[in-house]
């Protein structure tokens, strides 16, 4: 195999880019970055907190629509002739 004149080794690059590489295990900043992806900052918790009042608002709106449909009278009588 002919060595690359630039000194770039594709195999070494792929090995370093792998999350299971020896370099990733020696990363001095890795422990400082882990807080971004754990606990309240996990992907699920970040997604869950995008719209904080959406669940309560949806239930309240559905309840109002149900109340309006069954208990409120429609006084407009659309389609009937006015006398």
Describe the protein in words.
This protein has 83 residues and is an all-alpha fold. It has one domain. It has helices at 10-17, 22-25, 30-33, 43-48, 54-71. It starts with 9 loop residues before the first helix and ends in a 12-residue tail after the last helix. Pfam families: NDUF_B12. It is found in: Mitochondrion inner membrane. It is a single-pass membrane protein.
Quick summary:
The protein has helices spanning 10-17, 22-25, 30-33, 43-48, 54-71.
What would the keywords be for this entry?
mainly alpha, 83 residues
**Total E-strand runs:** 0
Number of helices: 5
Unreliable runs? none
What class, by secondary structure content? mainly alpha
What's the SSE pattern?
A: HHHHH
Membrane topology: Single-pass membrane protein
Keywords: Electron transport, Membrane, Mitochondrion, Mitochondrion inner membrane, Respiratory chain, Transmembrane, Transmembrane helix, Transport
GO biological process, one term: mitochondrial respiratory chain complex I assembly
Family: Belongs to the complex I NDUFB3 subunit family.
Task: Give the topology, please.
Layout: H1 10-17, H2 22-25, H3 30-33, H4 43-48, H5 54-71
């Amino acid at each position: 195999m002919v060595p690359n004149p630039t000194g770039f080794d594709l195999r070494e690059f792929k090995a370093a880019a792998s999350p299971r590489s020896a370099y990733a295990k020696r990363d001095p900043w890795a422990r400082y970055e882990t807080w971004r992806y754990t606990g309240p900052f996990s992907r699920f918790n970040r997604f869950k907190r995008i719209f904080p009042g959406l669940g309560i608002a949806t239930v309240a709106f559905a309840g109002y629509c149900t109340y309006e449909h069954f208990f409120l009278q429609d006084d407009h009588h659309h389609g009937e002739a006015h006398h």
